[in-house]
Amino acid sequence: MHTSIATVSLSGTLTEKLAAAARAGFGGVEIFENDLLACPLAPEEIRARCADLGLSIDLYQPMRDIEAVPDDVFARNLRRARRKFELMNRLGADTVLVCSSVSPDAVDDDARAAGQLARLADLAQESGIRVAYEALAWGRHVSTYEHAWRIVEAAGHPALGVCLDSFHILSRGCDPKGIEDIPGEKIFFLQLADAPLLAMDVLQWSRHYRCFPGQGGFDLAGLLRHVLAAGYEGPLSLEVFNDVFRQADAGSTAVDAHRSLLLLQEAAGAAVLPPAVVPTGVAFAELLTPDAEPVTALLTALGFTRAARHRGKPVDLWQRGEARVLVNTAATARREGTRLAAIGLESPDPAGAARRAEALLAPVLPRRRAPGDAPLEAVAAPDGTELFFCATGRPELPDWRADFADLPDTPAPPATRTRIDHLAVTQPWHHFDEATLFHRSVLGLTAQESVDLADPYGLMRSRAVTNADGSVRIALGVGAAPTDDTVHAAHIALATDDVVAAARAFRAAGGCLLTVPANYYDDLAARYDLPDEELETYRDLGILYDRDAGGAFRHCYTATVGRVFFELVQRDPGHQGYGAANAPVRLAAQHAGRR
Description:
alpha/beta
């Protein structure tokens, strides 16, 4: 379907917004009046710019406080409308959005509203323009789409129809099924926005917390199915007021926006995309570092062994049990220090996973490959982390391990079973919702509820995405202190059957565990009836403890190297959490450790 986006949804100047929308693949835009007023280009120049970019101007908005007003006020409104219609002709826009009035001059008189809207439509029709009437959720007398349709129907004018806005409909709890009673040709425009489910003033909710489809709690797919069942054939347009989006880079926001519409069409049965290929495990985590020594010392203390070397690149494979970590010392690492650069995901169909990613606008990464290197499909996540789709140990598909030469005399790994339990990746503050939608839509992972974590310098948000059996767990977070690399550090959580033994072995090998305040263990003794000996062991090793209906979660942390640290985890089979209750203590301890 034809897709469009309101310029108010993006940051920057009008010309920057238009360029971002076009690059992201939108076919059209809604021109928001404030963007036009602040633009130095004449309407004709904006029209030409849109044409050059392949964008149609699908809507001009908004026209406010028009209807159900005294005659003298309406006369002034018609004068204002006449000038706007002249402007729209210069701009090349043929549909105007008229919001239900919030003016104190407006009266509760549907007949007057219908009559005045019909006169407005007469004037619009003379200029070849249609009027799309929208019920604002906070409208003075008209606040539901059903009421707006009754007025439009009573006016009976061919140039007057309704604009349906998902936020205004769903924020009031209206049943969208009634949309099917509106003739499709009288639905002049459809605006879409999601939102988190919040208990607050609807105007403030709308102005600050709208988000793209799939990022909130509304059933937009259900609403879209009703709109299409009514016979609507116009654009699917996004109108999103969001403080974060208005400060973020317009280019990445526009891509995220277009991806959300593709996913919505798929969910509503209006488009067919390559099916999601859900990853089945973590093949490796890749660390990029300018100085291998601190990283390899940490891995050695954790019981990893250097098992193989890449045949053509400065990359070593370190392994313990099923957990694999690649250490990459390429020259590019000097710019950013030690960080988590890439994640290898086991995929039942790597090529299919790449097709899905490309269809949903994920950047496909070019890869410098020497003759004989395994052809690996890879895309970039919103934060720049590279995601490789792997088929480890499957003879019918290329195996990335074939790029590595085994090292002689590699010591035998410890006997205890170790694998990657989860990966925690901190997102730039403006990519959090985008990252969640990306991992859900592109990778087919399921998002858990978002949680707030108390940091000494503010709040962190965290949201985990997982596959069905928990073999892939990625915790996405956004930090409270943008200048603190500890808060922005990613971490790799290693699953072990015995966290006490693992922590002791790590410390005995020279590793440094995060120091946890004694006050934590006094509180732990009050909250849980743990044996004194067990409690003292946890106190000595800095092991944190959490428990829910599914069982216990024991975990401890290493010191941070660059922007990476490790976590040792002993998870009871039924426990699905990540130790969120202990996060404030961990964060405070990391801040204290840096000082």
